[in-house]
Design goal:
mainly alpha, Arc Repressor Mutant, subunit A, 2 domains, 9 helices, disordered N terminus, disordered C terminus
Length: 178
């Protein structure tokens, strides 16, 4: 990104350098390798436009935009989760395509697909996006108490069908209450 917009460009460039890996990592986990880079480009294109309009750009704001980009691609994500679920259940791990995370358990993917969209989004922002509850609340534009409720509901619904999600979410330092 070039600095054609003065200090506004500098702030977006700084956000880009600092946060691109986290945004791409999150988008890759949600959308797959094939579209993560394009989705990240869309996130930062929107950041440039927003900053030109006077909007402050922060990591939670970027994750909020990423969540919107994901929503716009939701249909493709649902198809991808169904394919991952099928492939992970039928294919030996060493033969899985590169875009399928070999650590994803088919039961976990199936359980994630069953979650309410809002509950799934909050949980994945905290677990895969590695955001704190406060940052996830900022990203989603909702109160932190709502994030806590959504994650509680998601964990409760996941239950024993996806024990790995509990271990990851429970062991994440970002999920601790302040």
């Amino acid at each position: 990104m070039s600095n054609t917009a003065g200090t506004a460009g500098t702030a977006v460039e700084t956000a880009y350098r600092q946060h691109l890996p986290a945004i791409v990592r999150y988008l890759r986990r949600r959308l797959g390798d094939g579209v993560a880079e394009d989705a990240a480009a869309e996130v930062f294109t929107r950041a440039v436009r927003a900053e030109r309009a006077g909007q402050a750009v922060s990591l939670p704001w970027l994750f909020g935009v990423a969540a919107n980009v994901i929503s716009e691609r939701r249909r493709s994500e649902r198809r991808r989760l169904r394919v991952i679920e099928r492939l992970a259940g039928e294919t030996p791990r060493e033969h899985l395509p590169a875009e399928v995370d070999p650590g994803l358990d088919p039961a976990l993917v199936r359980a994630l697909r069953r979650l309410d969209r809002g509950d799934r989004e909050a949980l994945l922002l905290v677990v895969w996006g590695e955001l704190t509850y406060d940052q996830a609340a900022d990203a989603l534009g909702i109160p932190v108490g709502t994030v806590r409720s959504r994650i509680f509901r998601a964990r409760k619904q996941l239950g024993p069908s996806a024990p790995r999600a509990h271990r990851v979410a429970d062991s994440s330092p970002n999920t601790a209450r302040p």
